[in-house]
Amino acid sequence: MTPTRPLRGAVATGLGFGAAQIGNLYRATSDDEARSAVDEAWRSGIRYFDTAPHYGLGLSERRLGEALKGRVRDKFVVSTKVGRLLTPTPDLAAAGQQDSDGFAVPATHRREWDFSRDGILRSIEESLNRLQLDRLDIVYLHDPDEHWHEASTTGVDTLVELRDESVIGAIGAGMNQTAMLTRFVRECDVDVVMVAGRFTLLDRTALDDLLPAALERGVAVVAAAVYNSGLLSSSSISDDAVFDYEQASPDVIAAARSLATTCRSVGVDLPAAAVQFPLRHPAVESVVVGMRSAAQVRSTAARFRSAIQDDAWRALESSA
Questions:
Q1: Residues designated catalytic
Q2: For the whole model, what pTM was predicted?
Q3: Which of 49, 142, 241, 271 could form a disulfide with 83 if both were Cys (CB 3.0 to 4.6 A apart)?
Q4: Domain boundaries, position 189
């Protein structure tokens, strides 16, 4: 069982299941493989599941909802996201076109940025239907980088309204940057933020602004993309390693290899350290890791539970 940690408006386990991969991120995954991954997550004690309409044009939400159906509702936490509405494009699908945004699915819909009240209400209704749920535990504003004004006013106000009506639990924003997340924490009535890739063993940007603000304001932090697009998912770093969805620079590869060397010197598995590291900060409530198969769930859970001694952490934390 992964430890349960407090979260305003919801309760999340320390290790969360990132469901982008069961939405066919980068390559196709079968329904059976996706279902077995969620089932294995449940057996491993994971009770926090994160998804979004963006992931596979709704496929991730549909698969997750089907896999969780029949389980006691109060025993798990689901987060999804708003800001990208899905508009049907049957002509593109009929023509055999595939999604152009990283997911191996037919282009049945297009994504449209929309942080308006009507857009958010529609998005949540559609997510509830796909997930086969009557409420959502956490809802994040999804990547509002170019939409600060609307997301921080109408977007947050709508989520607060729904939170007050108990349609959703905790509310916040999920992004790949810390500056705007810090603004959400300091200027808006949010409960939780998800930071992707900016608080990892390699990239500790969030220490400069987001994490101090979150502690000060009592806002929970969920850390995602802890492998930095796979760079830290192996104990050996290849020359063609990816960082933040792109070929890693020589400097980044050198830094990752330095961490790997430190890990070997203290008898620690680099991916295990990557999974556990964010939870050492008191503002971080959960780490969300993308998992596609039952085997990936088992390896991730083992990494999460592996023992890392204090002297090893001191060596790793001073090596960045």
A1: 55
A2: 0.97
A3: 142
A4: 4-314
